[in-house]
Amino acid sequence: MLRQLLSLSVLSFALGSTAFAQTAPAATAAGAYPNKPVRLIVPFPPGGGTDILSRLVATKLTEHAKWTVVADNKAGAGGTIGITEAVKAAPTGYDLVMGQKDNLVIGPWLYKNLPWDPTRDLTAIAHVAYTPVIIATSANSKFKTLADVVAAAKAAPGTVTYGSPGNGTSIHLAGDLFEKAAGIKLSHVPYKGSNPALMDALAGNVDLLVSSVPSAMAQIKAGKLRPLAVTSAKRSSSLPDVPTVAESGFKDFDVSTWYGVFAPAGTPAAVVSAVNAEVNKLLAMADVRAAIQAQGAEPEAMSAAQFATLLKTDHAKWKGIVEASGAKIE
C-alpha cells in the first residue's frame, strides 16, 4: 500500500512539473515580460541598414519601454546565419531577430538545404520600416545621371561594375532587374555586407553602389556619394530630389525591401502582442519616425497578422524572381 501511495505521489509530482513547464513561458509572458535582457539578433555586419535600424529599435525600446534590449551582430551567408541562430533559440521572447527581405524572402530560394522555413519556423511580430534601393556612385565619378550609366553600359557591355551587399540579396536582385529593364549588361561585384561595398564605391574601385538607402545615407549627406536613382515607385521622403528609376525612363520599376522583428515559432502570444505593441508605439513617435526617415527608410506599423501575411506573400512572389536572375549560392 505504501509503495502504491509513493508511486502515485511521484506520478502526481511529475505531471504537475510537466504542466508547470508547459505553462511557465505563457505565465511569464503574461506577467512580467521581460524580466531580463532581451537579445535582438542582427544578421548583418555593423554599419549596414539592418544594423542601423536594429540599434535604433533596441535603444528606443530601452528608453521608452524601459526594457533592456541588446543588439547582437551575427553576420554571414546573406543573413541566414543570424536567422538560423534565432530559429534554434528557445521560444521565450528573449531571443528576437531583425529579419528582412534578403534573408527571409530571398535566402530560402538561394541556399540549398537551409534548416528552416521562414513561414513555418519563425513568428512575425512587428514590421518596422521599408526602404527603396538606391543606385549611387562616388562624387568624383563621371556618371551624373542614370542615363549616363545606361549609355556607358550599352557602349561597352560588362565594363561598368556595381557593388552590392552580397550575391542574391534583394539589393543585388534590384540591380539585376534594372539591367533587364534597361537592356544592359553590368558586372556585379558582391561583398560581405553593405559597408565594404560602400567603401569600395567611395574609393572608385567599383563604378556604382547598389545599396539600401540607410546604408548609404551618411555618405550622401556628406557629399561623398552621388545618388542617381531610387528603385521604389515613389521618391524617398529623405531624398526628395533623387528621381526614381521609373522617372528615369523605366516605367513601372518598383523594388523595395522591408525590415521587421521576428521570434522563433512557438513564442507565446502574450510576448508577440507585447513586442508588437511597444514597437508600434515607437513608430508613432515623432522622434523615432524622424530618426528612421533620416536614414532613408520609411516607418510603417503593422499588426503581427498583417506582417505575417506580407512575409508569406513576398516569399512566394520572389521565388520566380530569384530563378529568373540565375543567382545561386552553392
Describe this structure in words.
This protein has 330 residues and is an alpha/beta fold. It folds into two domains: 37-131 and 256-325, 3-Layer(aba) Sandwich (D-Maltodextrin-Binding Protein, domain 2), CATH 3.40.190; 132-230, Periplasmic binding protein-like II (D-Maltodextrin-Binding Protein, domain 2), CATH 3.40.190.10. Helices cover 48% and strands 19% of the residues. Strands 1, 2, 3, 4, 5, 6, 7, 8, 9 and 10 form a ten-stranded mixed β-sheet that branches. Helix 7 (170-182) links the parallel strand 5 and strand 6.
CATH architecture of the largest domain: 3-Layer(aba) Sandwich
CATH topology of the largest domain: D-Maltodextrin-Binding Protein, domain 2
Number of domains: 2
User: Total number of β-strand segments?
Assistant: 10
Q: Summarize model confidence as the mean pLDDT.
A: 88
What is the level 1 CATH name of the largest domain? Alpha Beta
Q: How much of the polypeptide forms β-strand, as a percent range?
A: 15-25%
N-to-C span: 66 Å
Shape: globular
- Gyration radius from CA atoms, angstroms: 23 Å
Q: Roughly how much helix do the residues carry, as a percent range?
A: 40-55%
Write the layout of secondary structure elements.
Elements: H1 2-32, E1 38-42, H2 49-65, E2 69-73, H3 80-88, E3 95-100, H4 101-110, H5 118-121, E4 122-138, H6 146-155, E5 161-164, H7 170-182, E6 187-190, H8 194-203, E7 208-212, H9 213-221, E8 225-230, E9 256-264, H10 269-283, H11 286-294, E10 298-299, H12 304-325
Parallel strand pairs: 1-2, 1-3, 5-6, 5-7
Antiparallel strand pairs: 3-9, 4-7, 4-8, 4-9, 4-10
Helix pairs in contact: 2-9, 4-12
Organism: Acidovorax lacteus
Keywords: Signal
InterPro entries: BUG, Bug_dom1
